[in-house]
Amino acid sequence: MSKILISLYVLATSFALVALKYGSKAGAPLSFVNHKLLFNINLYTILGIGFYGISFLVYMYLISKYDLGYIIPLTAAFIYVLIFVASYFVFHEVFTTTKIVGIGLIIVGLVFLNFKK
Question: What is the mean pLDDT of each run of 10 residues along the chain (117 residues)?
Fold first, then answer.
């Protein structure tokens, strides 16, 4: 059950970030023009907010049931790796050597995090 919930949290958070970034291509969701607050909300922004809502609920459950020092680094690492891959395929961002080394170090950290005593 924990692997399913961790996967759900990681995927929901990653999808939320990608959707919000994609939705912001048309401009920032909020802007201030002539002393007025303008909303530039589109379907991707709404999807991003929805996925963030789901991820928040799952996150609250995860931190209530598992050690904070374990669940936060574990999920953050998976989210970083997934966002790194998604940014390449969805937004055509560039893989640099520094980024690849950083992701490699995150994966090594995941291995150490999961060593049993």
Answer: 90 95 78 79 91 96 89 90 92 90 89 74
Task: Phi first, then psi: give them for residue 8, nearest 5 degrees.
Answer: -60, -45
* Distance from C-alpha of 95 to C-alpha of 89, rounded to nearest angstrom: 11
Q: Which residues, 6+ apart, have CB-to-CB distance to 61 below 8 Å?
A: 5
Determine the Cα–Cα distance for residues 105 and 70; give it in Å rounded to an integer: 17
Query: Between the CA of residue 102 and those of 12, 36, 95, 106, 108, what are the distances in Å?
Result: 23, 42, 11, 6, 10
State if pTM tops 0.85: no
